[in-house]
TrEMBL record:
Source species of the chain: Paenibacillus polymyxa (Bacillus polymyxa)
Compartment(s): Cell membrane
Keyword Cell membrane set for record: yes
Pfam family, one: EamA
UniProt superkingdom: Bacteria
Domain EamA per the UniProt entry, residue ranges: 10-140, 151-286
Protein name: Transporter
Transmembrane segments: 12-31, 37-56, 68-85, 97-117, 124-142, 148-168, 180-201, 213-232, 244-263, 269-286
Keywords: Cell membrane, Membrane, Transmembrane, Transmembrane helix
The gene coding this protein: yijE_2
Lineage: Bacteria, Bacillati, Bacillota, Bacilli, Bacillales
Amino acid sequence: MGELTTAKRIMMIALLVVLWGISWPIYKVALEFTPPLLFAGLRTLLGGLLLGAILAPRWNRIRWKENWRVYAISGIFNVVLFYGLQTVGLMYVPSGLFSVLVYLQPVLVGIFAWMWLGEAMSKLKVIGLIIGFLGVAAVSIGGFSGHVAIAGVIIAIITAVSWALGTVYVKKVNKRVDSLWLVAFQCTLGGIVLTGTGSVTESWSDIVWNVPYVSGLLFGTVLGISLSWLLYFTLVNSGDASKVASYTFLVPVISVFVSSMLLHESITAFLLIGLVLIGFSIYLVNRRVRVVRQA
């Protein structure tokens, strides 16, 4: 995938973080009317099928025999483990702590991309990623109350690792596969697994087919899954994975702001502190400096 212009890149990053940021409160409302695994499975499955239908005229780019392993691996890391473990982990730890641990992802992407992709690494980038993580911790500090089980902490960390590995893997294989079909198949295959698991462990009769649920499902299908993953992989494949990942530190900030407006959740000074730290983090990670590359 070719290089993006600066203006287009900025617009895509802004749209991505807004979509992912507003997803959390929208899904939170929808989850009051549906079992979690079935909700995760349906929105990913429908998102993948929708994208596949749109891409049908370019079916010859699928190359299933050559690429099915790529589609499956991406689906496992970016959908089954990422969304599935989120659903399970939130039952064991407070949401604030869970989001902080999941947003170890940009830090891990920086490390994995340096190790396996030979991407640039510098002291400023390392410091920036750590500061960004601290910013997410500040933003999420209000959600630290409640029982914390070690199993939930482990699940959250595995969630972050799976998302980071999925990101770096997609970057590594992006020249072998069509990026659009990769998103379609990872969502479809992953969605089948999640929906199947939900069908066994949860009950379809527990779904309340009302406006909040259907709205959340439609949002997730079209914008929260299909469009956002397309944006994310396009950005990752066009530049340094760690630089793109650094912007995802903004997602919890937007989520808290939107939650305060839609769900009347409180905004604290920690949010502003976190926003400053995250802004400084993004500046450091994306600043051009003399770097060291992995041999």
